[in-house]
Write a structure and sequence with these properties.
The chain has 7 helices and 10 strands. The chain is an alpha/beta fold and 267 residues long. The strands form 2 sheets. Strands 1-7-6-5-4-2-3 form a 7-stranded mixed sheet, sandwiched between helices. α1 crosses α5. It is globular, with a radius of gyration of 19 Å. 42% of the residues are buried.
């Protein structure tokens, strides 16, 4: 950035003007509520999980979630109509991490309705949601969590949620987001990144049609069921996203060109 207002760097609390940027993000996700700021989405999710005695979740799911002792994963994805609402809380991501499968439409509505009827609190992780066309959902029964880290970069330590949080995100992160919104950069980045990921997913799906755990629709990673010994390049072990023992591999399509991934596997 060419300009920085250094008077805001030591401010505690909410930087004036940050509201406009966050409300813009909420509007394009189809939700509307008065938000609270946090340092990171994981910080909010950690607090939410610790408020519950037990938490159900999809399997596979984010490795930082599935390792909690009180999280009880159930095989299957909300996007496929598979869930178990026998716990007081249920964690899931609109765009499943790591499969990239998007929960949307009637299945999502049915999931929310059943959760309401059973008084199950939903912890909705919407960090990757901006890379899909599926609208987020919100109600009094939902703890909504999102972050700027997947939109503008991991250095932006700024999350927003509808529950009270103890953390105080840095003034500099807030100010950067505020200025990027005022400059129109935030809006442009969302559209450009979304287009880029859609193209990458299309190219990846064409090649991995026989190997993907599920066909992806959004997100930045793919989960494939190729045996690890077939890979000539170093990849992330996908078994960490399961409680059971599996032979899966996670590939981050945001980091590598699809042609390079294909070339490594073919080798």
């Amino acid at each position: 950035m060419k300009e920085i207002d250094y008077s805001v760097l030591n401010v505690e609390g909410k930087v004036e003007g940050i509201d406009d940027a966050i409300y813009y993000l909420l509007k394009i996700r189809g939700v509307n509520f008065d938000f609270n700021l946090a340092t990171s989405a994981m910080e909010v999710i950690d607090n939410a999980i610790n408020m519950c005695k037990t938490v159900g979740s999809e399997e596979p799911t984010h490795d930082g979630i599935i390792k909690y002792p009180q999280v009880l994963p159930y095989e299957g994805l909300v996007a496929e109509g598979k869930w178990n609402l026998s716990n007081p809380c249920f964690y899931f991501a609109i765009v499943n991490n790591p499969t990239g499968i998007v929960a949307k439409g009637k299945e999502l509505e049915r999931f929310l309705e059943e959760a309401k009827n059973k008084s199950v609190k939903i912890i909705e992780d919407d960090i990757y949601g901006y890379f899909s066309d599926s609208k987020a959902f919100y109600s009094d029964n939902v703890i909504y969590v999102s972050s700027l880290s997947r939109i503008l970069g991991s250095g932006i330590r700024l999350a927003f949620t509808n529950i009270k949080v103890k953390s105080k995100p840095s003034s500099i992160s807030q100010y950067i987001v505020k200025r990027l919104y005022e400059m129109g950069t935030l809006q442009r980045v969302i559209q450009e990144e979304k287009y880029t990921y859609i193209k990458r997913l299309q190219k990846a799906s064409e090649f991995f049609a026989n190997y993907l755990f599920r066909k992806p629709e959004g997100g930045v990673s793919l989960l494939v069921n190729l045996a690890k010994e077939k890979f000539k390049a170093k990849v992330t072990d996908g078994s960490r996203y399961f409680r059971k023992k599996v032979e899966m591999t996670r590939i981050t399509i945001s980091r590598y060109e699809i042609e390079d991934i294909i070339r490594s596997i073919k080798a």
